[in-house]
Amino acid sequence: MAAQLTRLIEEQNTVWQRMQDIQQLAERENRDWTAEERANWDAAEARLTEVSADIDRLNKMAALDKIDRGQIVTTTGEPDNDRRGSDTEDKAKRYSDAFGRYLRGGMDRLTPEQRSLMMDNEVDLRAMGANIDTAGGFTVPDEFRNIMTETMKAFGGLLGLAEVIPTGTGADLKWPVNDDTANEGEILGENDEAGEQDIQVGGRTLKAYIFSSKQVKLSMSLLQDSVFPLDSWVPKKLGERIGRRAARAWTTGTGVDQPEGLTAGAVVGKTGANGQTTSVIYDDLIDLEHSVDSAYRPNGRYLMHDNTLKVIRKLKDGQQRPLWVPIPAPGFPSTINGFEYTLDNSMPVPAAGAKSIAFGDFRAGYVIRQVQQVQTLRLTERYAEKLQVAFLGFSRMDGMIQDSSAIRMYQHAAS
After folding, report:
1. In a domain, 305, yes or no
2. What is the pLDDT of residues 395-415, one digit of tens each?
3. Looking at the DSSP assignment, which residues form a beta bridge with residue 366?
4. pLDDT, tens digit, 9 for 90 and up, residues 139-162
5. How big is the chain by its Cα radius of gyration, in Å?
6. Rounded to whole angstroms, how far apart are CA atoms 346 and 226?
7. For residues 110 and 139, what is the distance between their CA atoms, to the nearest angstrom?
8. Cβ-proximal residues to 42 (8 Å cutoff; 6+ apart), any chain
9. Angle CA 66–70–74, to nearest 5
10. Between the CA of residue 108 and those of 98, 220, 410, what are the distances in Å?
């Protein structure tokens, strides 16, 4: 994968340089582009888009291979201080094996010991009023949950940027919010009394909205085939579906019976001039960057849809230097005006009145709450006549703006 990534980066830079040469030649000769130059530019731009997309896919695949063990929590219900030594590791391994066997054959295929382990991790869903084929689901092993979480990160760029708060239960979580950027200290004269100015701390509540993967159906033949990587395939598919829906909630959610997304909660830092319904200019991006307090800008970055990046790739500064700079070498990111960017295709595309670009320190500005008891249902009887088994995943999450000064949005003109 590393060799392929290096080759693609080299091709990306070569194609980008070819496009710059076409433009610079016409500028030096002070003439319009020829038909051949336009055709070559269009072909190069199409290839650049393809190569950039391939680089993004490879980076996502690499991210999926790097499981973050730092946020693993117990799924057995044991207190943290009791989870130590080889006994805990052995029990986790036995539960993981039992869960994998449960996915393939259901509870009937388990040994008495494995059945007991599964029942220790059963979650009663009847109180939720769910109309399902079984009375309860099961919390998933750490490895399964981490695959799902990492897959969700790949499909929702904001999840990898924001502050993520994992909790063991779904009870309402009170969360403080504060904007103290307008306040400052003072200079005291000798023997002067210090003034007073309280910190205004507001309170918000993080909920635990239920995100469902919808049903994922598999044939009995696949389940019986030991070669099929069920233990990794199922969490990836469940994570993809939940991740896509959660990403859309975190970017465009209304905050009413769902998370508060960026477009609903973040302040607009720059609005395009009349006529800029689908476009953005260099000055707009400069204004957007400086609408974020300088205390946050060292950690600032852009967040946008891939279609928005396509618009920005054509922009240049006052010296006709492109704002978008491709990857110079493996290990270095592409940048926009010197800032890194993240693509999240749940963000709005350029359109009249759309808030298509976010800029700022997302870790300081946005918080995501994840309840760690990810649950999986195995629906055996519902599709039995088709020799199929369905899987259904649940994850409870929320998100909101926690520091309104840290993030600003670019909004296109309404007309």
Report:
1. yes
2. 899 999 999 899 999 999 999
3. 401
4. 777 777 777 777 776 667 888 899
5. 25
6. 36
7. 17
8. none
9. 115
10. 12, 15, 56
User: CB 384: neighbour CB atoms within 10 A?
Assistant: 11
- Would you give the DSSP letter of residue 75? S
For 317-325, the CB contacts below 8 A with 24+ separation are: 317/282, 318/282, 320/27, 322/20, 323/282, 323/285
Residues 5, 232: Cα–Cα separation, whole Å:
24
| Among 16, 31, 66, residue at a domain's last position | 66
Regarding whether 351 and 232 lie in a shared domain, the answer is: yes
Cα pseudo-dihedral 402, 374, 59, 71, rounded to 10: 60
- Check if the beta carbon of residue 369 is closer than 8 Å to that of residue 167: yes
**Tokens coding 302:** 């852009």
Q: How far apart are the first and last CA of the chain?
A: 46
String of DSSP letters for 11-23:
HHHHHHHHHHHHH
Q: State how far the Cα of 301 lies from the Cα of 283, in Å rounded to an integer.
A: 17
Instruction: Please give the pLDDT value at position 155.
Output: 67
Structural domain boundaries, residue 355: 137-178+201-415
The tally of domains found in the chain comes to 2
Assign 67 to helix, strand or coil.
coil
* C-alpha to C-alpha distance for 235 and 264, rounded to whole angstroms: 30
CA diameter of the chain:
88
- 72, two tokens: 């693993």
User: Using CA atoms, how far apart are residues 173 and 166, in angstroms rounded to an integer?
Assistant: 11
List the beta strands (DSSP E) in 125-234.
136-139, 163-167, 173-178, 201-206, 209-219
Q: Is residue 119 included in any domain, yes or no?
A: no
* Helix extents (H) in 202-278: 220-224, 230-252, 262-265
Question: pTM here?
Answer: 0.76
